[in-house]
Amino acid sequence: MSRRIGYPVLWLLAVAVAVAVGVAAVTTVGASIRGRGPLGTSAGNESIRTDQLNEQTSVPDPDSPLRRDAISGEWGSFEVGCRGVYAIGFEARPAPGWRVVSYETGPDDDVDAVFSKAARSVDLEVFCNRGQPTVAEIERNTLPDND
Q1: Per-residue pLDDT tens for 61-77?
Q2: Which residues pair with 125 in a beta bridge?
Q3: Which among 8, 103, 122, 144 has the fewest CB atoms less than 10 Å away?
Q4: Measured between alpha carbons, how far is 67 from 12 in angstroms, rounded to an integer?
Q5: Cβ neighbours of residue 137 under 8 Å, at least 6 residues apart?
Q6: What is the Cα–Cα distance from 76 to 92, expressed in whole angstroms?
Q7: Is the pTM of this model over 0.70?
Q8: Residue 30 predicted with pLDDT over 70
């Protein structure tokens, strides 16, 4: 009789522990994915959140050093600068055969550039990681054939 009750209780206990571990793992990993990486100090992150809540224009500190870098690939290059946690898009230069669809100038917490060539497009997102331009995401798309 004790085995009939013991096994189901043990199984329920194992299920409860597994669910708790799973929820903790998803919560931890989900938080890091949503953040897309560190944006410098927590005080800098808080100032961005405050700006967004107050719907004010983001203005980088002019005393912060400006670090510029060009993110390059087959599509061309996107010149981005960082002033603290604020990204600034300076210029998008397409490679031969490619064209610039659009790019953001900022300042913002991240800036994007979109390049295209025939049915292909590349969407590049750059943010400032401790004041250094860093690629957050490169999304490549191909339009389907319209035969």
Answers
A1: 777 889 999 999 999 99
A2: 112, 137
A3: 144
A4: 56
A5: 36, 123, 124, 125
A6: 8
A7: no
A8: no
